[in-house]
TrEMBL record, chain A:
Superkingdom of this protein's organism: Bacteria
Source species of the chain: Actinomadura viridis
Compositionally biased tracts (Basic and acidic residues): 251-260
Protein's UniProt name: Radical SAM-linked protein
Residue stretches making up the DUF2344 domain: 13-210
InterPro entries, per database record: DUF2344 (IPR018768)
Region span, Disordered: 247-294
TrEMBL record, chain B:
The organism's taxonomic lineage, starting at the top: Bacteria, Bacillati, Actinomycetota, Actinomycetes, Streptosporangiales
A Pfam family this chain is assigned to: Radical_SAM_N2
Domain Radical SAM core span(s) in chain numbering: 260-502
InterPro entries reported in the protein's UniProt record: CHP03960_rSAM (IPR023862), Elp3/MiaA/NifB-like_rSAM (IPR006638), Radical_SAM_N2 (IPR045784), rSAM (IPR007197), rSAM_sf (IPR058240)
One Gene Ontology MF term: iron-sulfur cluster binding
Record's protein name: Radical SAM family uncharacterized protein
Length: 294, 640
């Protein structure tokens, strides 16, 4: 077997926030990794490869949203063999990906002493649309949920059927009663009630998913959504213990450009220095646009 | 008339089905054209699951060629899995295209590409879900023309009742020609309705319209005659042959799926046709003559295809890829060009004798080393003479020795079981060959970790081949021989553990044989099987032999023919075969002579390098062999 030269080393690590929107929420984690690998090649991004018999591009993913779940805040890291301008990579990679897999943000990983990206993703903010559920019923269920000290649910995991508490992982849970938005208007126009939940859930082991929380809600009340709910991850990041808000996990890297001191952000910094405010994005509108296109 | 997307109805049910991504479309390089601006609209179907159908070259080529034309729109549809089928029935969601999720029934043409006969029941599922009557006779003015193509369409008789039309051979030009006929007919206000359109298609002799032919039978069940039943319909229907593949460099923009599919690579067809003359090989017989794509076009297509797709692997497709007159230069040129880019090259079909280790080494320079597969097809020298696979055991041993010396530790060998004149010892000879292969590897390397995998498929006699008259081997015999081979390998202490054996049981081959050489009466069986729940017959977990035999018994009750009559019965020279009116260009007398030569173990040389042996294709079809060398080389690409 001919021995090739050692693969080129990683010179730069890029941290990428991407969204999966509309019909592309049905991509699985494996589908996404194949699509990203191909987009990286199409975009001519100098990705590093692992050594060995079957070299793999150095792209790593943090806990991906499940198949069928939309997301505005998924993260991956790419190792490059040459330095590239993150803004340029953002544009090129986005252009090379299918519509619906969209690159939101790219930063160069901080040089030293910054924590691993995965460690910063302490919690997720989720938005769950429950068609057929009245807001008042949802509010009652949420109140009962928040009042309970623990709520045990059962789920089939890779290790078999497990029973675990979902209450402790929930840092925030509320029914959104903001101005009507496109999807709610559509549901109401069709004379179907629709409740929207917003929740912030800590990343724990076993992972507590929005589905588990809905199971928990069903145990304390009965909002019984008739169809699978539309779930969107709005944000991931460090969880501020005081405000209960999520910070931008890439902010730490933005603060460590070469030549600048690494400043560990205080809690205040973390909150005020949010990047593109996740709640401003409108994943539901994105889904509708994609749906209407077909 | 506006045609609405069914996606808003599909989307809510997708979380309930397996691999929903396969139904949402949105592949890179897929296109959605304006419905109302299109004059002619094609729904292209590959009648198997998305993961199998998406990579299909034929569909991708037609999709691109049709969509390139102004006023023409093409979208794709695939078989839905039974879980979604059940929901679609319950919620009345029709068969849809994955591009714009338009209902298939709204298109002008439903073009279905059959690589294998085992997709026939899936055709019925799609028609039924689409709301298109299963039988062509029941269709009205507004239903699409259901058109079959692909290799199985060289005998479409078993599905004749379900088809409006079929085309034989290369699809590029005929798809456009059909489009023009439909465009004109629609522009004229659809004169004469559906029949007139079919008549316009049939008149040329290039489109087969089954209902314009009557089949009559003899009392013993054999066909008496197949004849046109109205004036103006030619007695024979010709296959289509694209000359000068360089003029048709498709796919240019390969579809890149999000879902996982069976082939994750960009494929370039480096030549079409094969004249090696393997007697079992329908593809080799019906795609003649050999037409090479030039080295420079191949180079350009690989360049464009990789840029457009981002694939990491290039497959150089053909029926026998190492036979391209400039394969060495192609391989070296591509390996040079993609050195250091982690792009791998593969040759999916390689003959043992044509294999050359320099080629394989070039192909593994890209970083990944794919496995080596050879297809001696027959275990004994005698068997290989019968099937005209002119490879000696010494050739094979020489080739694998070089491969092992060059670092490969494993080779794969393909064989068939149930070939005409086969005896038990011909199959047992596979074990001897595999042992020799292992020993050669051990001798060449001094190592013990040498492996060889033997894959065996059941032989199915196919129309338009010299074996079209042969008796198919019954499945009990095939299974017995395979078991004997397995036992022989297991018993062997010295080599047994170094040899892997893969085979399927013989029953599915019998059904494939029924569908391959069947006539119009077989359509009743297909329909009965489908009504009984038959789906995805190419998938072992869905296939039911019992269902097929029970339905065959029922559907053929009162007929002088049965399942055995269609499969394990040898035909004589004068019998009218169901596909005799469909012309692949092969001279019937030549095929018969080649069948006699097979029985006599007489071999025939490849006409590319030896004088013409008069198979008939070139003069009948007005075609000719197109091979290099061109003498050109692949230039390194300039850096953009």
């Amino acid at each position: 077997m001919p021995e090739g030269p050692a693969p080129a080393p990683v010179i730069q690590r890029l941290r990428v926030r991407y969204a999966k929107r509309g019909r592309l929420r049905f991509t699985s984690h494996r589908d996404i990794s194949r699509a990203v690998e191909r987009a990286v090649r199409r975009a001519g991004i100098p990705v590093a490869f692992s050594a060995g018999f079957t070299p793999h591009p150095k792209i790593s993913y943090t806990g991906a949203a499940a198949t069928g779940v939309a997301s505005e805040a998924e993260y991956l890291e790419i190792g490059l063999t040459e330095t590239r301008d993150p803004a340029r990579v953002r544009a090129d990679l986005d252009a090379a990906l299918p519509d619906g897999l969209d690159i939101v943000d790219v930063v160069a990983a901080g040089q030293a002493k910054t924590s691993a990206l995965a460690d910063r993703l302490e919690a997720s903010e989720w938005r769950v649309r429950l068609d057929g559920v009245r807001e008042t019923d949802a509010a009652g269920a949420v109140a009962a949920f928040l009042d309970a000290p623990t709520i045990e649910v059962e789920r089939l995991t890779k290790k078999g059927r497990r029973r675990f508490d979902v209450r402790a992982a929930v840092s925030a849970l509320e029914v959104e009663t903001l101005a009507p938005e496109p999807d709610r208007r559509a549901a109401e126009a069709a004379d179907v009630p629709c409740a929207i939940l917003r929740m912030v859930v800590r990343h724990t082991t076993p992972a507590v998913r929005p589905d588990d929380i809905l199971t928990g809600l069903r145990q304390v009340a009965d909002p019984a959504p008739p169809s699978p709910p539309l779930v969107t991850r709005l944000a991931q990041g460090p969880l501020d213990a005081v405000t209960g808000e999520l910070a931008d996990p890439l902010e730490l890297d933005r603060g460590t450009r070469p030549g600048r001191e690494t400043v560990p952000p205080s809690g205040d910094d973390a909150v005020t220095a949010r990047g593109p405010a996740p709640t401003q994005s409108d994943p539901a509108a994105g889904a509708d646009v994609a749906g209407a296109r077909s | 008339m506006p045609v609405e997307s069914i996606f808003p109805r599909l989307e809510p049910v997708l979380p309930r089905v397996q691999k929903p991504i396969q139904y949402v479309g949105g592949e890179l390089n897929s296109q959605i054209k304006d419905w109302d601006e299109a004059e002619v609209r094609w729904a292209l179907m590959y009648p198997d699951a998305y993961e199998v159908g998406l990579p299909n070259q034929g569909v991708q080529i037609l999709y691109e060629i049709l969509n390139e034309r102004e006023g023409v729109l093409a979208e794709r549809t695939y078989s839905v899995w039974p879980d979604l089928e059940a929901i679609m029935r319950e919620q009345r969601i029709p068969q849809f295209t994955v591009d714009a999720h338009r209902p298939v029934a709204a298109f002008d043409v439903l073009g279905v590409s059959f690589s294998t006969e085992l997709g026939y029941t899936n055709l019925l599922t799609a028609l039924d879900l689409a709301g298109i009557p299963l039988e062509a006779a029941d269709r009205g003015e507004d239903h699409p023309i259901v058109l079959a193509g692909g290799h199985a369409a060289f005998n479409p008789e078993p599905i004749a009742d379900f088809l409006d039309a079929a085309v034989l051979g290369d699809g590029e030009e005929i798809a456009l020609a059909i489009t023009e006929v439909i465009r004109e007919w629609k522009a004229e206000g659809r004169p004469g309705g559906r029949d007139e359109l079919l008549m316009r298609l049939a008149r040329s002799g290039g489109v087969y319209v089954p209902k314009f032919f009557d089949v009559t039978y003899l009392p013993d069940g054999r066909i008496q005659r197949v004849a046109p039943n109205r004036p103006g319909v030619p007695w024979r229907v010709d296959k289509h042959t694209v000359m000068d593949l360089d003029q048709w460099p498709y796919p240019k923009k390969p579809l890149v799926p999000l879902a996982e599919t069976v082939h994750e690579r960009f494929s370039v067809e480096i030549f079409r046709g094969c004249t090696r003359g393997c007697r079992f090989c329908q593809a080799g017989m019906i795609t003649r003559p050999v037409r090479e794509r030039s080295i420079t076009t191949i180079g350009d297509m690989v360049d464009t295809g990789l840029k457009e797709s981002g694939f990491q692997e290039v497959g150089l497709l053909s029926l026998s890829s190492a036979d391209h007159s400039e394969i060495g230069d192609v391989a070296k040129g591509l390996a040079d060009r993609y050195e250091g880019t982690n792009t791998s090259l593969s040759l999916p079909s390689t003959r043992v004798d044509a294999f050359n280790i320099t080629l394989a080494n070039e192909f593994s320079r890209g970083g990944r080393r794919s496995g080596l597969t050879f297809a001696p097809e027959g275990g004994s020298e005698r068997m290989r003479k019968v099937i005209n696979k002119m490879v000696t055991e010494d050739d094979l041993i020489r080739t694998v020795t070089t491969a092992y010396e060059n670092g490969w530790r494993q080779v794969k060998l393909y064989f068939m079981c149930g070939l005409p004149t086969e005896e038990d010892e011909d199959v047992l000879a596979i074990a001897d060959m595999a042992k020799r292969v292992i020993q050669a590897g051990r001798d060449a390397t001094g190592r013990r970790d040498i492996r060889c995998t033997v894959s065996i498929g059941g032989f199915v006699p196919k129309p338009h081949t010299p074996f079209q008259w042969a008796a198919q081997c019954d499945h009990e015999t095939v299974d017995r021989r395979l078991r004997a081979l397995r036992d022989a390998l297991r018993r062997d202490k010295e080599y047994g553990r170094s040899i892997g054996l893969r085979y399927h049981d013989g029953q599915p081959s019998i059904v494939e044989g029924l569908l391959s050489r069947g006539d119009r009466r077989v359509g009743r069986i297909i329909r009965a099987v489908w009504e009984d729940g038959g789906r995805f017959d190419g998938w072992s977990e869905h296939f039911s032999y019992e269902r097929w035999t029970a339905c065959a018994d029922k559907a053929l009750a009162g007929e002088p023919v049965d399942l055995d009559w269609y499969t394990v019965r040898e035909r004589d020279e004068v019998e009218v075969l169901p596909w005799d009116h469909l012309d692949a260009g092969l001279d019937r007398e030549w095929l018969w002579q080649d069948w006699q030569d097979a029985v006599d173990e007489t071999e025939v040389e490849d006409c590319r390098w030896t004088p013409c042996y008069d198979c008939g294709v070139c003069p009948t079809m007005g075609t000719e062999i197109q091979i290099g060398p061109t003498g050109r080389k692949l230039l390194p690409l300039s850096v953009v």
